[in-house]
Amino acid sequence: MHPHTEPADAAPRPQDPQEPALRASGLVKRYGDGPAAVTAVAGVDLAFARGGFTAVMGPSGSGKSTLMHLLAGLDTPTAGRVTVEGHDLAALGDRELTAFRRERIGFVFQAFNLLPALTAEENVLLPLRLSGRRPDRALFDEVVGSLGLGDRLGHRPGQLSGGQQQRVAVARALLTRPAVVFADEPTGALDVATGRELLGHLRQACDRLGRTVVMVTHDPVAATYADRAVLMSDGALHGTLDAPTADGVVAAMARAEGVR
Ligand SMILES: Nc1ncnc2c1ncn2[C@@H]1O[C@H](COP(=O)(O)OP(=O)(O)OP(=O)(O)O)[C@@H](O)[C@H]1O
């Protein structure tokens, strides 16, 4: 469906089940030219195993959002490559990339990004509708049930609490069975308890549905829901923590701040 233009030995094979859900190779993003140029991402190599949950952390301005936008195909790198299940994003034209994002990538943003005129159910089903795909009713029932949205499906976003809106956004991100779900500060607009609940739902998306989750967060406790925390500093990877603890993340963040 997405033919590779490069020789087989230079590119991973798209259908290879061993290929990670997501891979960044030599990823660089530079803004501007000359002395005013800013290198937001300075050569990142990172693989994201299928079904894993990664928290991307680091000081303000360290390049987390830029990295996430590159990984999600929302921005194009200055150098390097992003592959999603072996598909090189650079090999896709604009329209193919838009379709690929809609079908293979799920997004959960801080500002929910639900359409106010649509009901919760219509919001959840929108990406599938735009792709001309039929909803999988069993998956719909499982996701909506486990997110506790069953009695809210007819409500519009304005009639839902922040936590409920965010759960609608999670359901929408899961219904397409995406290769990767990106969450950008998903608990930023929520109170602590509601935020923790939301993190539990992202965890379950990995454990029960086998989804791959990449979450940008400033919150060391949020990172404990992940299998791995990667720390950015000045656009580069500063370190990786497996099975992160809040204390471990705080200490590693302090070291990352120290090298700036
Ligand atoms: N469109 C742009 N044009 C110029 N510079 C940019 C642009 N976007 C980001 N930058 C710069 O790139 C660097 C990394 O920014 P980025 O937003 O990725 O950091 P971040 O770690 O997500 O920060 P925060 O935690 O504050 O959201 C910063 O120095 C920022 O000013």
Automatic annotation (TrEMBL):
Domain called ABC transporter: residue spans: 22-259
Top-level taxon of the source organism: Bacteria
Region (Disordered): 1-20
InterPro entries: AAA+_ATPase, ABC_transporter-like_ATP-bd, ABC_transporter-like_CS, ABC_transpr_LolD-like, MacB-like_ATP-bd, P-loop_NTPase
GO molecular function: ATP binding
Swiss-Prot/TrEMBL keywords: ATP-binding, Nucleotide-binding, Transport
SUPFAM superfamilies to which the protein is assigned, alphabetical: P-loop containing nucleoside triphosphate hydrolases
Keyword ATP-binding: yes
Pfam families per record: ABC_tran
PROSITE patterns referenced in this protein's UniProt entry, alphabetically: ABC_TRANSPORTER_1, ABC_TRANSPORTER_2
Low complexity bias (residue ranges): 8-20
PANTHER family for this protein: ABC TRANSPORTER RELATED, IMPORT ATP-BINDING PROTEIN
UniProt-recorded name of the protein: ABC transporter ATP-binding protein
Organism name: Nocardiopsis suaedae
